[in-house]
Write a structure and sequence with these properties.
This protein is mostly helical. It contains 2 helices and no strands.
């Protein structure tokens, strides 16, 4: 999982001109960390040819 620091989040939000209220920052930071981790996982996904069949020729 990607370890996103609060400083990195602050820099990203500032670069985009987004002001996150202090009382919401913790939750928004956790959501940002989750999205970064998900994006990292999706980059590692290898797509399989939809016509691919199992080793024994079955669809499954």
């Amino acid at each position: 999982m990607t370890d996103v620091s609060e400083a990195e989040f602050d820099a990203c939000a500032a670069r985009l001109g987004i002001e996150v209220p202090a009382d919401l920052k913790g939750g928004v930071l956790r959501g940002y960390q989750g999205l970064r981790a998900m994006a990292e996982l999706l980059r590692g996904v290898r797509l399989v040819d939809p016509g691919h069949r199992g080793a024994e020729g079955d669809a499954g």
